[in-house]
Amino acid sequence: MKIKFSTLIILTFVSVALLIPFVLSPWYLPLLRESNFDLHLTLQENLYKQITGYVSLFFVLLEMILVARKRGNGWKIKIKIPGSLIFWRSLHIVVGIVLLATTLIHTVGSQGLNFNAIFLWVFFGVVLSALVGAVAEVGILESPQRVFSLAGIKADGLNQKKLIPKGVLIRNLRLIWLNTHIFLVSAFFVMLIIHIIIAYYYQ
Questions:
Q1: Domain end among 111, 136, 162
Q2: In this structure, are residues 178 and 105 in contact, taking their beta carbons and an 8 Å threshold?
Q3: pLDDT (tens digit, 9 = 90+) per residue, 103-133?
Q4: pTM here?
Q5: Please, are residues 153 and 172 in contact by the beta-carbon 8 Å criterion?
Q6: Which domain holds residue 160?
Q7: Element of type H or E holding 2
Q8: Can you give the pLDDT at residue 156?
């Protein structure tokens, strides 16, 4: 299962749709509280937060399967997971969007305050950095062009020295988006642990 460029574009639009409630929450959450206080209260209760939080945590752990699939052979304790790397990478992208949806359900679109607000934005960075990188990379791979110009001019009319081969462009872009993604993922996991501690011991 290899995700095509067209599928990634659809997933991008889905991601945008899932992010819109976070932008509009300062307006619709007060309206929800006024129009249906009981529902608003239910969505803020610990039981709802725990259930949706555990569901989100499940998908976070599922995301880590890709790491085990990709890096497991180099670990001292060998971890073998069936399925091709392409399959797990595609699943990794899809599950990331699902995790964005479960986060929306968990937070009800609330942007949070203080630590939770920063934590939420780091998570957005994790999802978007991977999605933007995947869209760019697959788009280049599926393009019939073999060389590219950063100037956006047709390759035919440029000096060959100013052209970038497809493979080189992909590697250079990957250095940017993948390193950004890994950094944000590392920050996300540290903040996730802190978030869980705060949720259970300080509230």
A1: 111
A2: no
A3: 999 999 998 888 889 999 999 999 999 999 9
A4: 0.84
A5: no
A6: 112-203
A7: none
A8: 52
